[in-house]
Hints:
nine-stranded mixed sheet
Amino acid sequence: MASTGFDNLEGEIWFNGAFVPWKEAQVHLLTHALHYGSGVFEGVRAYEGRIFRLREHTERLFLSAKVLDLDIPYTPEEIDAACEEVLQRNGLRDAYLRPIAWRGAEQMGLSARNARTHVAIAAWKWPSYFSPEERLKGLKLDVSRWRRPAPDTAPVSAKATGLYMINTLSKHEAERKGLTDALMLDWRGQVAEATGANVFFLKDGVLHTPVPDNCLDGITRRAVIELARQRGVEVVERPIWPTELPSFEECFLTGTAAEVTPVASIGPYSFTVGEITRALMEDYDRLVRGGK
């Protein structure tokens, strides 16, 4: 994909209510979102032509927009319909969709109340965020030096473009060390998430996951909690401290892109790709391909 570039793919993108050729979906240099991070987005997956939990993603897009004071000029129903049509027009069945809303170039400067909110939806083939080998063996994670911000310092409840800068820095630093991803702590020093996914730990048959009070309560996260409880696995949402990492037996990440991906190590601490992790990987795969 990198050799082609995402600006040079074939297909059509839904752009402000109309379909345009992929290469013509352009924004101006002075777009407010480019300079000030005033955009929100979603990551959505389609499996065998069915979009997984589309309405939940669309509702979160609108909630994020509200947090950033963006007025999306379409209804949730129109966004859902556009997502479905993007898949059909591009002939995609297994795909990743990216709805995004942002402030345009109609007004420049920190105050941009008169800037128009633009909306676009793109979709492309993307079989897995991590390689099959990584998912089989488990990811190796760094511990990032960057921390998730406190709720009173940034709009942490929104899936906002500007919040991902430290995630990119964390992932780049991990990759330079030969690792795949990074675990991020929050402003208190508690475990928060990976750079683009929620995290779960297993100890004595019980799953533990951080309370999502400074990172997204992921849609995949919620689905996996449901699946675990259907299996009779207890799930505890609580503060988790890095000092607890040596006591956990299994670890995995969840996210629209990550799906359910095992973790083999975080810094010096190792985990097994065990029975519960494998079972939830299989359960999640059945769930998304069942269209529920």
